[in-house]
């Protein structure tokens, strides 16, 4: 199994859990680590919220040493605000391995702040921000980009990141304008890989079904898995198995029920029963996606509002194994 390095830190394999708003808090990272994920990201953390000491945002920060490597992802649209947020982050009792900055988010509520992929329209400011971040951060700085805002400018952006001292970049193979729909331009990620010397992480619709093709098309150092990992932490083991020439095992509905219950229990420890049960409605249903006749199970799960409710659905599945 191949590994790779970011700023001299060895990442044990090439399969990375993407940052997903509303999902990749510690419980989901725990499930990813359980199946061999090489590096996991936090959710996007707002720099504006950090400087206003928003309690919910502070709780999103990695509070303790986790089972694997973790990247703390920040987003913001103003250089001074971002640097002030970094000052706060660096004095808090936290444990993270990389500082990631988001230049890729395409959603309007982020763009209105001048954040996310909006930076790709103002490259001089982007370079200034990265030079200041890389000189000030106590952790290696990495970043996540898209291929451009409306138009492609990915080679210019990638070279800018490298010149500013960034140690690795994750590239979603679409522009902001393309959002999450349509073709992922994997060949353009390969162009970036050919242009720069720092590690390149491919992102965009990657799954166990296309990982070999994406590897051939991008020649990337690593691969970032997003929505395909929701309710499917086993995907990281599947990807490792595929790399090792081993056919992945089929998902088992009884094992999925066990994993879903474990995920729920970690969410409850992290957020309390009420919020955890609310969050898990959508996630729990994804644990059973693709199983024949699972509609009844998924319908029951999306209506659960307590730990007891979830147990009434999941325990019979576990016990029938």
From TrEMBL:
Q: Which Gene3D superfamilies does this UniProt record tie to the protein?
A: Aldolase class I, Putative flavin oxidoreducatase, domain 2
Q: What reaction is this protein's catalytic activity?
A: a 5,6-dihydrouridine in tRNA + NAD(+) = a uridine in tRNA + NADH + H(+); a 5,6-dihydrouridine in tRNA + NADP(+) = a uridine in tRNA + NADPH + H(+)
Q: PROSITE patterns, from UniProt?
A: UPF0034
Catalytic EC class: oxidoreductase
Q: Which E.C. number(s) belong to this protein?
A: 1.3.1.-
Catalytic residues?
A: 105
Q: Does the keyword Cell cycle apply?
A: no
| Superkingdom assignment | Bacteria
Task: Report residues binding FMN.
Answer: 73, 144, 172, 226-227
SUPFAM superfamilies registered for this protein in UniProt: FMN-linked oxidoreductases
N-terminal signal peptide = none
**Cofactor(s) needed by this chain:** FMN
Q: Which family does it belong to?
A: Belongs to the dus family.
Write the protein's name. Answer: tRNA-dihydrouridine synthase
Q: What is the scientific name of the source organism?
A: Candidatus Scatoplasma merdavium
Biological classification of the source: Bacteria, Bacillati, Bacillota, Bacilli, Bacillales
